[in-house]
Structure formats: structure tokens, C-alpha cells
Design a protein that fits this description.
This protein is mostly helical. The protein is 67% helix and 0% strand. The protein is built from eleven helices and no strands. The N and C termini lie far apart (60 Å).
């Protein structure tokens, strides 16, 4: 009797957080469309009634999942706002695969979500697009701060490298695959940045 009561109380605490944590694990390991709401409820664990009280539809859950990732710092974009790092180091950190709880390497969750919901008008696809546009805006600001004469073009090249490296790291399950794109990014920066700034930022 006491055990049952304790279990009920435990299940009632932080239900929304447990649901999002469960969704994160399941979406990462088996994909969004392959994960059912009932499976999320079991993984959380919460009742289906509690699950739907927090997230009326699966789309609501997926959007909340992506929004949580966006603010967690656990995505490629997360390193771009780390003020303790120099602008150049923030850019190069784009090519370090974010740490994960599981053994397999994850790609960019926003690209993965857009691929699973290919309709550009779908809210999930639209949110993923917003994050990718934010990514390039952040990189543009950083390379402009470094003194690049054409920051827009360089930023597009750098984010294309970063997204491509993350996707290949996931497909090949190689966490350090980004080193190849990082070397290419360093070459781009060497050619695009003033020599004085490049030398000054090398040790930061």
C-alpha cells in the first residue's frame, strides 16, 4: 500500500519533463515517425491521460522537443553563443559532435525532423528551418566580428560544412568525423580573414 502510494507520487512529479526526456531518447534512437505516443507514455512513465494533458497532439510534443533542444545547448547551434569562447573558436566548435547519452552518434535533430516532415508548410519543418536560419545568422555575425569582407557567403559555406559533417557522422557512426570539415573550415577562414585577425585569434 505504501509502495503503491510512493510510486503514484513519483509518477506525478515533473511529468512534462519526463515526457520530454522520454521523447528525446526515443526520437534519437528510432526516429520521430516510428515513435508512438503510447510508447512515449510508457517510457516516461505517465498515463496516456497525463501525456495528452500536456501535449494535445504528437506535433505539439515534437515541437516542444525541438524547442527544448534549441535551448539546451546540446545542438550544433549551441556553441555559437558561448561567450567564454572567441568568435573563431565558436565557429570551429561547430565541427565537434555534441555529446549524447547513447552509444550511437546523433546527427542534427533539426535536419532529421525536417527530413521526417518534408512539407515546408508543416510547423515542425518550419521550426527546423528557423533554427537553421538562426544558425547562419549567428555565424554571419561571428565572421563579421572577425573582419571578414563577405560574411554572408563565408557563413553559408561554414554552416554547409557543419551540417554535412554532422549528417555523415551520424550515418557512419563516427563521432570524430567533423575533423575533416573542421580542416576545411580552417582553410576557409585563413583565406577570408585579415591576416592580423587570424594570427590574433589563433591562440584564443
Amino acid at each position: 500500500m505504501v509502495t503503491a502510494k510512493g510510486t503514484t507520487q513519483q509518477r506525478g512529479r515533473g511529468a512534462r519533463e519526463r515526457i520530454l526526456a522520454a521523447a528525446d531518447r526515443l526520437f534519437a534512437h528510432q526516429g520521430i515517425t516510428a515513435t508512438g505516443m503510447e510508447q512515449v507514455a510508457e517510457e516516461a512513465p505517465v498515463s496516456k491521460r497525463t501525456l495528452y494533458a500536456h501535449f494535445r497532439t504528437k506535433s505539439d510534443l515534437v515541437l516542444a522537443h525541438l524547442q527544448t533542444l534549441a535551448t539546451s545547448g546540446r545542438t550544433l547551434e549551441g556553441v555559437l553563443t558561448l561567450e567564454e569562447l572567441s568568435p573563431r573558436e565558436r565557429i570551429l566548435r561547430l565541427f565537434d559532435q555534441p555529446a549524447t547519452d547513447g552509444a550511437s552518434v546523433r546527427g542534427c535533430p533539426f535536419i532529421d525532423a525536417a527530413a521526417e516532415f518534408p512539407d515546408p508548410e508543416n510547423p515542425i519543418h518550419a521550426y527546423a528551418r528557423e533554427q537553421k536560419l538562426l544558425m547562419v545568422r549567428l555565424v554571419t555575425a561571428l565572421v563579421a566580428e572577425l573582419g571578414c569582407a563577405e560574411p554572408d557567403a563565408l557563413a553559408e559555406q561554414l554552416v554547409t560544412l557543419a551540417d554535412g559533417a554532422a549528417s555523415r557522422a551520424m550515418v557512419l557512426n563516427q563521432a570524430d568525423y567533423g575533423r575533416h570539415a573542421r580542416a576545411a573550415a580552417q582553410t576557409l577562414l585563413e583565406h577570408a580573414l585579415p591576416r592580423g585577425e587570424l594570427a590574433g585569434s589563433a591562440g584564443r
